[in-house]
């Protein structure tokens, strides 16, 4: 019954094996540190370079700026209409987020709790829809919206963002609701609560954890989207943040510090949210990707 | 009465979801299949030309270049992202401060807009102020300096590092949660048998998370069909269509020359290709399951 003793002795007593392990440790930490630097350097470079003048880009590409030009930020803000773009992104993102949450929660409540004819067909409808690659709808959606005179409105973004967020949202919410016992609702139902009452007063609060995953997914999708905005919006006053930044770069190509300052400003909100909710964001995006 | 009320509730609740989803996801597919048969510039009369657009696509060398580039992107994701993420997942499985920090850093590009990521990498490759060329100079490798994004031969390969860099975090988290689900006894057994490091990864851990790796590969395939933003921001498909993907090919063919019929035909083609790919990969995985 002493089988494990010689094995333990062998590992601890063996000289070369020990140094091999130390070598392994050194390689391990070197690889990790190098990868970490590689991963973070582009962001660090972006931040530092936002304070630079053009001369600094040539003279000290890796160094700190000679003088820190914080005015790059205020100039970028003023000359790029970044404020308007922030506002547009906020309206479009919140609009599609609220619509997605409400519509998806209601549908998931029904799909998880009611038996009715056609339910299987509806679920299949969503699964088939998820196979459609989002970019292959750009041209036909453009034509469709042109015919509906919807181009260059907030709706041109809010409605497609919602539509494409729906299947993942419904799958996450339905799976969550199915895993929750029905006792609470049954009790409330017997007490005479109507169906809408059940939905608002019991289902919504109960599914908060799943709703927060859906919130993260559709927030990031709408806030970061570029292709829909590029195709459906060309009025300057309606451009969202990613689109405005991309156009700004085209316009100010030779004023590097200014462009980088605008880019830095545009990522600050996302980075703050990421610092606050990183665990939830990682889990949510992974769940969304695997289910979607 | 009650049954009637709940039936009304069911269809009232599902109505908005179904209408939104049908209108913005399914109608475009039908629209593009329909307009694909026409020669149409968006204004005026659409002229029916049968399969003319499809014949033109198949004759167009740019289409085949785009398809090849898409395959390169899939290969880069499968053989770049997946192995790197697997190694990182094994290295980062403990939760001390540094490892948690690195995990967050590696995931960060996932939550940022592709516009900003593409622009950062554009500056890294920049011919005059790009830090990559400065770095090569500093290392005495000045002769390796290249026009990374404007050389027809290498533009598409220059797009691969940013692609891998921005998505590795997603696969890292997917693999980490799969590894965490492996019961502790397996690790103990491996220790007793003297398996550790690379050996343990290949012969014990990898087989245990085989299903997750399969999911990751499918995600790589569908993800590569979605990369439009990165390429559009960094090269717009150029120089001379050298880095065109199917999605940028569709965008450029539709909106630079106002050929909506032709663009619709490309949309339909992309849809068919992706259905074919997904169908094949599903079939392969299900066949493997039957065999084992």
From TrEMBL, chain A:
Segments traversing the membrane: 26-48, 90-111, 123-143, 155-177, 198-223, 256-277
Subcellular location: Cell membrane
SUPFAM superfamilies in UniProt: MetI-like
CDD domains: TM_PBP2
Membrane topology per record: Multi-pass membrane protein
Main subcellular location: membrane
Similarity comment text for this entry: Belongs to the binding-protein-dependent transport system permease family.
Occurrences of domain ABC transmembrane type-1 (ranges): 86-277
Entry-linked PANTHER family: ABC TRANSPORTER PERMEASE PROTEIN MG189-RELATED, ABC TRANSPORTER PERMEASE PROTEIN MG189-RELATED-RELATED
InterPro entries assigned to the protein according to its UniProt record, in alphabetical order: MetI-like (IPR000515), MetI-like_sf (IPR035906)
Name of this chain's protein: Carbohydrate ABC transporter permease
Record keywords: Cell membrane, Membrane, Transmembrane, Transmembrane helix, Transport
Source superkingdom: Bacteria
UniProtKB/TrEMBL annotation, chain B:
Gene3D superfamilies for this protein: MetI-like
Bilayer topology: Multi-pass membrane protein
CDD domains noted in UniProt: TM_PBP2 (cd06261)
ABC transmembrane type-1 domain boundaries: 67-281
Annotated InterPro entries: ABC_transporter_permease (IPR051393), MetI-like (IPR000515), MetI-like_sf (IPR035906)
Keywords: Cell membrane, Membrane, Transmembrane, Transmembrane helix, Transport
Main location: membrane
Family affiliation: Belongs to the binding-protein-dependent transport system permease family.
PANTHER family found in the cross-reference section: ABC TRANSPORTER PERMEASE PROTEIN, INNER MEMBRANE ABC TRANSPORTER PERMEASE PROTEIN YCJO
Protein name in UniProt: Sugar ABC transporter permease
Organism: Paenibacillus haidiansis
């Amino acid at each position: 019954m002493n089988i494990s003793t010689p094995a333990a002795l062998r590992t601890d007593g063996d000289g070369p094996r020990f140094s091999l392990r130390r070598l392994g440790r050194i390689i391990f930490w070197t690889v990790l540190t190098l990868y970490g630097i590689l991963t973070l350097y582009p962001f660090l470079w972006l931040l530092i370079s936002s304070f630079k003048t053009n001369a600094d880009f040539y003279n000290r590409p890796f160094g700190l700026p000679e003088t820190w030009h914080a005015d790059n930020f205020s100039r970028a803000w003023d000359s790029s209409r970044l404020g308007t773009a922030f506002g547009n992104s906020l309206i479009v993102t919140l609009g599609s987020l609220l619509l997605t949450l409400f519509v998806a929660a209601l549908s998931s409540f029904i799909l998880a709790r009611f038996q009715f004819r056609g339910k299987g067909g509806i679920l299949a409808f969503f699964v088939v829809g998820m196979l459609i690659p989002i970019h292959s709808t750009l041209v036909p959606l453009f034509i469709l919206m042109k015919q509906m005179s919807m181009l260059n409105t907030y709706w041109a973004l809010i409605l497609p963002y919602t539509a494409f967020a729906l299947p993942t949202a419904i799958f996450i919410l339905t799976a969550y609701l199915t895993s929750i016992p029905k006792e609470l609702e049954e009790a409330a139902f017997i007490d005479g609560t109507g169906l809408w009452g059940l939905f608002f007063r019991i289902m919504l609060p109960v599914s908060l954890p799943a709703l927060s995953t859906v919130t993260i997914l559709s927030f990031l999708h709408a806030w970061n989207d570029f292709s829909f905005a590029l195709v459906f919006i060309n009025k300057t006053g309606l451009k969202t943040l990613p689109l405005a930044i991309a156009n700004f770069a085209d316009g100010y190509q030779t004023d590097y510090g200014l462009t980088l300052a605008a880019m830095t400003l545009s990522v600050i909100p996302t980075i703050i949210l990421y610092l606050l909710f990183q665990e939830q964001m990682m889990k949510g995006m992974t769940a969304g990707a695997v289910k979607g | 009465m009650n049954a009637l009320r709940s039936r009304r509730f069911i269809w009232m609740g599902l109505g908005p979801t179904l209408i939104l989803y049908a209108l913005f996801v399914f109608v475009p597919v039908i629209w593009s299949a329909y307009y694909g048969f026409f020669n149409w510039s968006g204004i005026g009369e659409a002229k029916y030309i049968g399969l003319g657009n499809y014949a033109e696509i198949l004759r167009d060398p740019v289409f085949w270049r785009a398809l090849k580039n898409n395959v390169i992107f899939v290969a880069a994701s499968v053989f770049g992202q997946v192995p790197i993420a697997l190694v990182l997942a094994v290295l980062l499985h403990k939760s001390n401060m540094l490892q948690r920090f690195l995990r967050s850093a590696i995931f960060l590009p996932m939550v940022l807009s592709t516009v900003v990521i593409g622009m950062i990498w554009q500056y890294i490759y920049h011919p005059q102020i790009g830090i990559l060329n400065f770095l090569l100079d500093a290392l005495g490798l000045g002769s390796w300096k290249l026009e990374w994004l404007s050389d027809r031969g290498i533009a598409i390969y220059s797009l691969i590092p940013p692609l891998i860099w921005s998505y590795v975090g997603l696969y890292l988290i997917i693999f980490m949660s799969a590894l965490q689900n492996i019961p502790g006894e397996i690790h103990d057994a491996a220790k007793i048998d003297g398996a550790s490091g690379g050996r343990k990864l290949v012969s014990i851990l990898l087989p245990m998370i085989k299903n997750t790796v399969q999911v990751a590969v499918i995600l790589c395939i569908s993800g590569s069909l979605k990369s439009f933003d990165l390429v559009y921001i960094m090269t717009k498909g150029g120089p001379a269509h050298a880095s065109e993907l199917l999605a940028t090919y569709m965008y450029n063919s539709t909106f630079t020359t106002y050929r909506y019929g032709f663009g619709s035909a490309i949309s339909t083609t992309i849809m068919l290709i992706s259905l074919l790919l997904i169908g094949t990969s599903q079939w392969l995985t299900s066949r493997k399951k039957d065999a084992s």
